[in-house]
Amino acid sequence: MIQTDIIIIGAGPVGLFTVFEAGLLKLRCHLIDSLPQAGGQCSEIYPKKPIYDIPGFPSILAGDLIDNLMQQIAPFKPGFTLGERAEQIEKDAEDFFIVTTNKGTKHRAKNIAIAGGLGCFEPRKPPIENITDFEDKGVEYIIKDPEFYRDKKVVISGGGDSALDWSIFLTDVASEVSLVHRREGFRGALDSVEKVMDLAKEKKINLITNAEVVGLTGQGTLEGVTIKHKTQGEMQKPTNHFVPLFGLSPKLGPIADWNLNITKNAIEVDTFDYSTNIEGIYAVGDINTYKGKLKLILCGFHEATLMVQSAFKRIYPDKNLVLKYTTVNGVNGFE
Amino acid sequence: MSEVTIHIEDREGGMHTVQAPTDMNMNIMELCKASELDVEGTCGGMAMCASCHCYVLSEHELSAMSEDEEDMLDQAFFVEENSRLGCQLKINQNFEGLKIKLAPQSA
Hints:
The complex is a heterodimer. Chain A is an alpha/beta fold. Chain A folds into two domains: 2-122 and 249-329, FAD/NAD(P)-binding domain, CATH 3.50.50; 125-246, 3-Layer(bba) Sandwich (FAD/NAD(P)-binding domain), CATH 3.50.50. Chain A is built from seven helices and 23 strands. A five-stranded parallel sheet of chain A has the order 6-3-2-10-22, covered by helices on one side. A four-stranded mixed sheet of chain A has the order 1-9-8-7, with no helix packed on it. The model of chain A has no long low-confidence stretch (mean pLDDT 95). Chain B is an alpha+beta fold. Chain B has a single domain (3-102), classed as Ubiquitin-like (UB roll) (Roll), CATH 3.10.20.30. Helix content of chain B is 14%, strand content 23%. Chain B has helices spanning 28-34, 67-74; strands at 3-9, 15-21, 53-56, 83-85, 99-102. In chain B, strands 2-1-5-3-4 form a five-stranded mixed sheet, covered by helices on one side. The radius of gyration of chain B is 13 Å and the shape is globular. The A-B interface holds A 41, 45-46, 49, 118, 124-127, 158-160, 181-183, 185-187, 246-247, 249-250, 295 and B 40, 42-44, 46, 48-49, 51, 67, 70-71, 74-79, 104, 106-107.
């Protein structure tokens, strides 16, 4: 069991900055995020995009902002549970929250800060009617272990980097690799595109463009896919594995089941301390909503700063908090 | 302030006629959000999420698609010949009478 003062759900910019503000009050934090790296959207969606409204930075790349935040919070030695989704919240006999992830990792703390942004990033699922029937029975949205495809036939669909890279990689592993893409051109790194084109010429990748996978067939497990070509109509392709790679999109996910008051996919909070309807659970950043809410990183920073004051009071009800300036006291990290 | 009239069909087939200012550097995604239509605009308008995917139903001449927009539509579903990302359609005088339809939300 991981023990801490504040469990932060979501390791985006606001979740990370919460560690800093909590650290100034000598509170320890542990972050949980479904993505394998810290940074949330900034790292996952737009690491190379400049942000212009971070105070003091005329322009900063989203990825650099995350690097800086990681540096800024390092003295406070935050813990991380990455690549796991916070699934369940319970309370134990001593009134502590227990947060359990989808992989069973348990965390215990007096306070929870939900800094979940837009929710958990999950693979985009193509709108094929019976696709859920074949999940883990031939349909995989993520390639975990390429060896799984050794000497098997695989159909990949998608036009981005991961579709290209995995198609290339699997040519040496699978017995047959087909790549289905909606149009002729590809996005993604130029050398990957070239490589795929070369492998297609050598007949190592069966490249099917201007086409989409529209149907799945099989008794219990996947036996074939239906591919619809823009001009040539539909064709059947026998395969035991279909891997749709269409990137990730955020879903509110388990947060919706935690008995929090939710309006339009956001958690209602009191702007006094960004507390939710459940005492001890706070929500900061894009995930929360209140009158006048703006979904800006800088607003999330402010929310986190006020929130930790209230979290402190819950842990030390008898202690008085005195605002200490970092210019006077510096940053005193944890041993 | 100059305005244009834009017709938006929501996912349930409901029609919404909205006035859009042309001098506020507004795009169709923002217009939908401001009109309380069910458009998420997850990435904030960077052509990186496709949650503002829509179909252009009228014959308006619109700005050509950028590489980014084309690339993002590759990862979207229910894509048709007239698919666009609302966030990439900056509202100007030529939009008068534009008719669009919101694309289905994907799972």
